[in-house]
Amino acid sequence: MITASSYFKGMFGHKMYKASISLNGTCPNRDGSRGVGGCIFCSEGGSGEFAASGYSVTNQICQAIDQVRRKAGDNAGYIAYFQSFTNTYCEPEYLAKVLSEASSVQGVEALSIATRPDCLGPAIMEVLSRQAKKMPLFVELGLQTASDETAKSINRCYWTYEYTEAVKDLKDIRANVITHIIFGLPGETRGMMMDTVKLAVDSGSDGYKFTCLYVLENTPLEKLYRDNKVEILGMEEYFDIVEEALKLLPENAVIHRFTGDGPKKLLIAPEWTKNKRQVVNYINRRFGL
Fold first, then answer.
1. Computed from CA positions of residues 111, 113, 117, 123, in that sequence, does the dihedral angle turn out positive or negative?
2. CA–CA distance from 26 to each of 82, 124, 155, 180 (Å)?
3. Does 49 score more than 80 pLDDT?
4. What band does 25 get if pLDDT is binned at 50, 70 and 90?
5. Shortest CA distance to 20 belongs to which of 60, 66, 74?
6. Higher pLDDT, 80 or 73
7. Is the pLDDT at 50 greater than 50, yes or no?
8. Mean pLDDT of the chain, nearest integer
9. pTM (whole model) above 0.90
10. Looking at the domain covering 2-287, what would its CATH class be?
11. Spatial distance between the Cα atoms of 157 and 33, rounded to a whole number of angstroms
12. Which of 41-50, 57-66, 235-244 is predicted with the least confidence, judged by mean pLDDT?
């Protein structure tokens, strides 16, 4: 197992920080293309609640760099991280423009793009292929589950085979693939969660982002939680699942996230994720980091 911090330091020769960017876009399961309402756990801001939306790409990156500059020091590098919504769900020309702008900001040494496997058509892949030849490119795919039945219940609105095809296509252009997996989705057994990990491994994912299912205000998941139709994992139970998942990963797999933490202003459950320092200390002790 390799942590993201050690991986980036080995790759770039120094510590790397992410500068989050919001393009104020949308997703095909929000605008009616494939569905409406988005995934049941997503807030109105998508996954970009922490990004500084409403500004240019350059301004957002510079703002993010300014926030960590004192801690980062002069020798750090930055990854421009297109975080919110589905960042390849746009016109190819627009994607090429914002990627070019981000890569030209001083200090940016790599790009990372969060997206969906069903939003990687030929024209978009051509843009990504050109970019991958210029600087390291990480593409984050929201798999969440390998079960199409679960995917339907959470309104993911794409089939699992589309993920496996997307990973192959991305590897062909030498992009680094990071897979998002959620543990504790409604109705999923421990075996189903491990099946998701196995699928990602077999597909050739380079890195992994694990998170527990958390409940945010004003989401469809909140109603299910209020109606006692969803159980949320406790901290020990969740990290037991993570530990089991880690045993399935190849030695060169990079763990980019052991768990996520939702925005406190919206977070309803689980309570244990609110104390980020406590969770980080627990992860460090349990996994010997």
1. negative
2. 13, 16, 15, 18
3. no
4. confident
5. 60
6. 80
7. no
8. 94
9. yes
10. alpha beta
11. 10
12. 41-50
Q: What is the distance between the alpha carbons of residues 158 and 34, in angstroms, rounded to a whole number?
A: 8
CA distance 94 to 88: 9
Q: What is the pLDDT of residue 55?
A: 85
Phi then psi dihedrals of residue 136, to 5 deg = -55, 135
Q: CA–CA separation, 97 vs 91, rounded Å? A: 10
CA distances (Å), origin 267, targets 74, 228, 237: 35, 17, 19
Which residues neighbour 112 within 8 Å (Cβ) at sequence distance 6 or greater? Answer: 18, 79, 80, 81, 82, 137, 138, 139, 140, 178
Q: What is the pLDDT of residue 138?
A: 98
d(CA 154, CA 5): 31
Q: How many other CB atoms are found less than 10 A from the CB of residue 248?
A: 13
Candidates 197, 142, 205; CA nearest to 176 is 205
For tokens 């350059």, the residue is 58
